[in-house]
Amino acid sequence: MIRSGNHLLYLGATILLCFNLPDSASAENISVLSPQKAEQWVITIGNSAIIGPSYEGARSANVYDRPYHLNLIPSLNWRHESEKSDFSAPDDSMDFTVFNQNQFRTGLVVNIRSGRYHGSDVQLKGLNNVKWTLEGGGFAEYWPVEDHLRVRAELRHGLLRSNTGFIADISGDWVEKISQFTLSAGPRLSLANTTFMTRNFGVSEIEAVKNGRINAFTPLGGLKSTGLSTAVSYEWNKSVTTSIFQRYDRLTNDAAKSPITSVLGQRNQYSIGASLNYSFRL
Prior knowledge:
By secondary structure, the protein is of the alpha+beta class. 16% of the residues lie in helices and 47% in strands. The chain contains six helices and eleven strands. It has an eleven-stranded antiparallel β-sheet. The protein starts with a helix and ends with a strand.
């Protein structure tokens, strides 16, 4: 309820304003006086279910134990309602954009890297477990052909373990939007330093003796794998999007020479998955 004194004050201010407005004043000028509606955020949460090798270098058809395992990987993204929704490949790390101009953007990334455990393969007897870790780092991506060709690079390091080392992923994707479908495909390169390679593909003398099937091996850093990723997404409405995707990687150099790969596992690594994303305004 408005008190009468305030009511008269508002009326007087309105009359004074009307007398002082120039003749050319328009509704557009007057609208500046009213508060503007705050821009909404679009929040996207999702989850991906990925079936792939139980560890990097694992055999795809392992008669001893489980050759594949299921990973559930959550995702989170947010943007202003006025901003265009950015393309994201299924194997991109979760990112936060710091700088975005024209066809280039860069920022921070977070990724979950699964480990290697005895329970996934009896052939790993005697080898040390490689515990899962959370990786953090940065990314940069550029669109040489706007809305069609994207090149992206990520550099990450483990956040939970001190001996995880650095890994760099480089990808290229050709993107086509057809009605509510989005199709993408492109090559993948993965490089790692010696610390990362030793943790994931190295075998100490003690481990070799305990296992009995493999020899000691000390890998060096460099190109770890090359591959290809493809994906198909369908936008059911403004809120719900589903995707199916696959990725193939071929381990190279010391990642392929390691007895963990060459004796216990194999170079060719396949994975397939599906994801569900839900968007809402806040």
